[in-house]
Amino acid sequence: MMSLDATLLAEQIIQAILEGSLAPGTRLDPPGPHPADALMDAALDQVCACGMAERHPDLGVRVIVPDPVLLLDRFEALGEISGLCASLAARRASSSDMIAIEELVGQMQDVGPDAYRRMGLDLHDRICRMTKNAELGRVCADLRSRLAPIWPLWPEQAEYWRRARHEHRALVEAICARNEAQAGIIMRGHLRAIAREVLFTAGICPTDPV
User: Which pLDDT does position 8 carry in this prediction?
Assistant: First the structure.
């Protein structure tokens, strides 16, 4: 399970990289022998997984220029796998599963951005579990963990959050109606929208995702 503290630390490091406070080539781990710091190691793993740094056997963890193509590929992969998960969830969800996600998406309508991000990730996790396919859930969770530290870069404009709420509600409605095709379409479109907002907000995406 991903450490929340490690993710928060990774978010701070990534924000500093994107703001230019940590330039490409900057070493993020202390040189030479040093006591193991599990929290920092976990955070740096996430920074590397997001494509913001690289580990070198002799040079340590160094900041790199983010690769938009790599990040687009990861968001696209997450969107396609999440779309499959949404379709399977629509087919396999139990009545109690449906009631639970309807309640969750209802609660999401009146919370602020930080709570909404957390609840949105919870919703996506639940949809993966509703597929009844542990391997799909594992792959999806791994991709989300690679991208999670840059998700807080979502913009704060009210219009964006209105659209996100509408997309999540429509997704849940499609799953609860057992409309597999529609659930998959909505989920893929939702992840494409997140990719555009996150990457353009971060200033590391030169073109729209396909």
Answer: 83
Average pLDDT over residues 99-128: 91
Query: In angstroms, rounded to a whole number, what is the distance separating the alpha carbons of residues 198 and 204?
Result: 9
What's the whole-number mean pLDDT along residues 69-92?
93
pLDDT of residue 79: 93
Structure token digits, residue 32: 């030479």
Contact 123, 85 (CB under 8 A): no
CA distances for 173 relative to 36, 86, 114, angstroms: 47, 11, 24
Contacts of 35 (CB under 8 A, 6+ apart): none
The tokens for 127 are 């949809």
Q: How far apart are CA 127 and CA 160, in angstroms?
A: 22
Cα–Cα distance between 120 and 162 in angstroms, integer? 13
Put simply, whether the predicted model's pTM sits higher than 0.70 gets the answer yes
What is the Cα–Cα distance from 97 to 72, expressed in whole angstroms? 31
Q: How many residues does the chain have?
A: 210
Whole-angstrom distance between the N-terminal and C-terminal Cα of the chain? 31
- Within 59-163, strands assigned E span 60-63
**Which of 95, 116, 98 lies closest to 107 in space, CA to CA?**
116
Read off the pLDDT of each residue in 97-112 and give the average, rounded to a whole number. Answer: 94
DSSP symbol at 28: -
**Centroid of chain to Cα 54:** 20
